[in-house]
Amino acid sequence: MASRNFYVQLIFRVLLITLTALALAFAIFKPWYFTLAFSAIFLVAQVYSLITFINSTNRKIAYFFDAIRNEDFTLRFPEKVSIKSFKELNQSLNRVNGLIQEVHLQLQIREQYYQEILKQASIGIMTFNEKGHILFSNPTVEKLLNYTPLNHIKQLAQVDEGLYQVFKSFKPFDRKLFQLTNEREQIQLALKSTPITLDEKSLILVVVQDIHEELDEKETESWVRLIRVLTHEIMNTITPIASISDSIIKYFKKEGKVVPSNSLDETQIKNTLKGLEVIKEQGGNLMDFVQSYRSLLNVPEPNRAIVSGKKLLGKIEVLMSTRQEEGYTNFKTECNPENLEFFIDEKQITQVLINLGKNALQSIKETKKGQVHIVAGIENDGVKYIEVRDNGPGIPSDLIDEIFVPFFTTKNEGTGIGLSLSKQVMQLHGGSLKVRSVPNQETVFRLAFT
Length: 450
Prior knowledge:
single chain; Beta-Lactamase; five-stranded mixed sheet; 10 helices; 14 strands; elongated; nucleotide-binding; HATPase_C_sf
């Protein structure tokens, strides 16, 4: 609230202007030229003084906001003034200025803290705008890309032209793998982009990570799993052969000497023949096992063509109809949209879907109201997919990572290479085969075509 002194000064100035205006009017009618000139000049001066007096508050506030905009917190307004309202206003502006300065310092401290975290991060982080100018890159990304300082993505062409093309073509939410080779080593980079907006400007944030060690670990783990399964299968075949061979040898050799043929009885001869038949059968099984392994290593490159999704699923439905347990299974296919098309090797993908459909039908044999649905569709990002769904008992969580290992199987029949072959076929198509399972609710095998 304005003080009494402020009102007195304002009233005095208004009265003085009024008196000067009356003197000016009186001088015009006389006419007194000297008085007229003096009154006019004095009136203009009084009006200017009043405007300046009233606008002093506006100027202070304008100076205050200009200083804040320029991050100048040294501006201080005098607090020892005669007008109480101005004193209160100046105190308030100084107090707000202090608070804003404190907040600004806190923000600077936080920014430095976050910058230090990004610098020390074990993954590379980079942001660049639509024109390719790099606004931020931490030391890790400069080390991974073997270039410093990074100011524009065009500099990456000096590292590797392919790497530059990857960054140049980046779109929001893209995920890409790139193998970077330099004079020191080969590194496998995983790149992921995320759109962000800063000061109403669209930016791309790219996270770069060296996954070479992770790939080595996964490769070693895969070899361990494969060797474990191979050892299990081979030992299951070889153990009976070794046992039966030892029994037969005992018939024909005692105390290190060959037993005469005339001393063998009919039972020993029959047992020998039975043993040889078992050895032959186990040998055949081992040959089949090796042949299965060879087939896994010799999957041909896909012979791709445009295939109608609706016709493909219709064909699968016909082929699977002979395998359904009548009255126990609800088997159906769905293609949405109906004009959906795939660029695939029809024979290979048909075999994959038959294998997955057969597994699904086997899994729901003991399930009441068993259902198997094969659904084809397309995601919003353009990824086409085919899903094989069933409501059987599902896959235990401890086996979910094992089912794609060659020769691993939980069934009494089969070689255990069906899912491995299916996954390899999808990889040759540039896609993926993944599974998710909720026991006794839903199991979904998803073929994604990128």
